[in-house]
Design a protein that fits this description.
Elements (H helix, E strand, L loop, with lengths): L1 H29 L6 H13 L1 H11 L1 H20 L4 H29 L5 H29 L4 H4 L1 H15 L13 H20 L9 H21 L15 H21 L2 H8 L4 H29 L4 H17 L8 H29 L5 H32 L6 H30 L5 H9 L2
C-alpha cells in the first residue's frame, strides 16, 4: 500500500520538473514563444482547481477509485500532449494532465492515513516528502537527457510506463472501501469553488508578468473570483456535507496549519522560481549547471523530510519542527535578500541547503497537524485544504514576484547587459525581501499549533 502511494506521488512530482527543462525547446519547435507560460499556467490552473473536489470525494466514495481515475487522466493527458502539433493543443492537454496530477498528489497523501496508525504517521509523511524530493531531483536530469538525446515529446511519453506501473500497484494493493449508499455530494459548492479558484489562479498568473498590472482583464477575473467565493461560503453553511467545511477553521491548529502553508508556499515558490534566471543571466551558468545549484535546496529538503518524520514518530511530538523550520526559511530568505551579482556560489549553496532543511521540517508536518485535528472521515478534506492553501500561496507568490521582476526589467534599456544584470539583481532582492516577510508570518503562525498529544485526545471526541 505504501508503494502504491509513493509511486503515485513520484509520478506527479517528477512530471513538474521534467517538463520545466524542456520548455525552451518546445517553444522553438512549435514556434510559439509568447504562449509558453500557458504550458505551465494550464497545468497549475486545473491541478489547483480540483484539489478540494478530490479531497471531499475521497472521503465520501473512497480514495482507491479516485486515485485510479487520476492516474488514467494524467496518462491520457501525457500521451496526447506528446502528440501535440501546435501550442494550443499542448496547452489544452496540459490542462487535462493537471486534472489528473492534482488528484494524484492529494489523494495519495490522504491514503496514507487510511492504513498507517496515528503514532507512525509522522515517519511515513516524511517518506512522502522524501519521494517528492527524490522525484524533483531526478526530473531535471531526466528531462535534460531526453530533450538533448531524443525529443521533447518523450518527456510526456516517459510518464506512460511509470503511470501504468503505478496503476497496477494501486489496483492490487489499496483496499476498496465500502461507499455510502447515497452520499450527499455538494455539487453546487464544488462548482462555485472550482470556478472561483480557477479565476483567482488565472487572474494572479496573468497579472504583472503576462499583462501589466493596470490592465483591466486580470482585475475583472479577480473580482469575479471574489464574488464566486463569497457565494461559495454562503452555500457551504447550509449543505450537510460541504466540500470544504468552514467549521474546521474554528480549530486553532487547523486554521494556522492552512495559513502557515499559504505563507510557506508563497515564500518558497515565489522566491526560488526565479533563481535560475539569476544563475544564467547574471552569473553566466549554462542551464545544466544552474539546475545543479538548485540540488542543494532539494537535498536539504529530501534529507530533513525523512529525518523529521522519523523523529516525530519516535517522540510523538511535532510542534518544534515547523517552528524551527519556519525560522530557518526566514533566515535563508533574509540572506537571499542581500543577493549580489558577485556573491560566491558556495555561499549561495549553503543558503539553499538551509532553506531546504527548513522546508523539509515544515511542509509535510503541516499536513500531519491538520489531519490529526479532524475526524478520520474528513482526512481527504484536511489534506486537500492544506495542499490548496500551499498551492494558492505559491501561485500568488510567483505571480506577484514575477510582476515585480518584470517591472524592474521594463525600466531597462535594451542592449545593456550590465544594466540587465543589475535590474535582475535589484528585482530579486525585492522579491526575497517580500518572501522573508512571508517567512516571518509563517514563523509566527507555527507558534499557535498545538502539540500532537493534545490534538489526539481532542480527536477522540470528534
Amino acid at each position: 500500500m505504501l508503494l502504491a502511494v509513493l509511486s503515485s506521488i513520484f509520478l506527479a512530482a517528477m512530471d513538474q520538473t521534467v517538463v520545466s527543462t524542456a520548455l525552451p525547446t518546445i517553444a522553438r519547435d512549435l514556434h510559439a514563444v509568447k504562449e509558453l507560460p500557458w504550458v505551465v499556467t494550464a497545468y497549475l490552473l486545473t491541478s489547483t482547481m480540483c484539489l478540494p473536489v478530490y479531497g471531499k470525494l475521497g472521503d465520501l466514495i473512497g480514495r482507491k477509485p479516485l486515485l485510479q481515475a487520476a492516474i488514467v487522466l494524467f496518462l491520457a493527458g501525457s500521451a496526447l500532449a506528446g502528440l501535440s502539433q501546435n501550442m494550443l493543443e499542448l496547452i489544452v492537454l496540459r490542462a487535462l494532465q493537471g486534472i489528473g496530477g492534482g488528484g494524484l498528489l492529494v489523494t495519495a497523501v490522504a491514503s496514507i492515513s487510511d492504513f498507517i496508525p496515528l503514532t507512525e504517521r509522522g515517519r511515513y509523511q516524511g517518506l512522502v516528502g522524501g519521494a517528492f524530493g527524490l522525484a524533483t531531483l531526478i526530473g531535471p536530469f531526466l528531462g535534460g537527457f531526453i530533450v538533448q538525446h531524443v525529443s521533447w515529446r518523450w518527456i510526456f511519453y516517459i510518464n506512460i510506463p511509470i503511470g501504468v506501473a503505478a496503476f497496477i500497484v494501486v489496483t492490487a494493493a489499496l483496499p476498496r472501501r465500502a461507499r455510502e449508499p447515497h452520499p450527499a455530494v455538494d455539487i453546487g459548492g464544488m462548482i462555485l469553488l472550482t470556478a472561483g479558484l480557477g479565476m483567482l489562479v488565472l487572474g494572479a498568473s496573468l497579472s504583472g508578468s503576462v499583462l501589466p498590472w493596470p490592465s483591466p482583464f486580470p482585475w475583472i477575473l479577480l473580482g469575479a473570483a471574489l464574488t464566486l467565493l463569497v457565494a461559495f461560503v454562503l452555500v457551504e453553511r447550509r449543505h450537510p456535507e460541504p466540500v470544504l467545511p468552514l467549521a474546521f477553521f474554528r480549530f486553532r491548529t487547523f486554521a494556522f496549519s492552512a495559513t502557515t502553508a499559504f505563507f510557506v508556499g508563497g515564500a518558497m515558490l515565489g522566491s526560488i522560481s526565479f533563481l535560475p534566471l539569476y544563475l544564467q543571466a547574471v552569473r553566466g551558468l549554462d542551464p545544466t549547471r544552474s539546475g545543479l545549484e538548485l540540488l542543494f535546496l532539494l537535498v536539504g529538503m529530501l534529507v530533513m523530510s525523512i529525518v523529521s518524520g522519523r523523529l516525530i514518530s519516535r517522540r510523538q511530538r511535532y510542534r518544534a519542527f515547523p517552528i524551527a523550520g519556519a525560522a530557518l526559511i526566514t533566515a535563508a530568505l533574509w540572506r537571499l535578500s542581500g543577493l549580489t551579482a558577485t556573491m560566491p556560489l558556495w555561499h549561495l549553496d549553503i543558503i539553499l541547503v538551509v532553506l531546504g532543511i527548513g522546508l523539509g521540517m515544515t511542509t509535510q508536518v503541516l499536513v500531519l497537524s491538520a489531519q490529526i485535528t479532524v475526524a478520520h472521515r474528513h482526512l481527504g478534506v484536511a489534506t486537500s485544504t492544506i495542499s490548496l492553501f500551499r498551492s494558492m500561496g505559491g501561485t500568488l507568490g510567483v505571480a506577484t514576484f514575477g510582476g515585480i521582476l518584470a517591472t524592474f526589467l521594463r525600466r531597462m534599456p535594451a542592449s545593456r547587459p550590465a544594466t540587465e544584470a543589475a535590474r535582475i539583481v535589484a528585482g530579486l532582492r525585492t522579491d526575497f525581501t517580500i518572501a522573508m516577510l512571508l517567512g516571518i508570518a509563517a514563523f509566527m503562525g507555527t507558534w499557535f499549533l498545538e502539540e500532537m498529544h493534545i490534538l489526539a485526545e481532542r480527536r477522540k471526541a470528534l
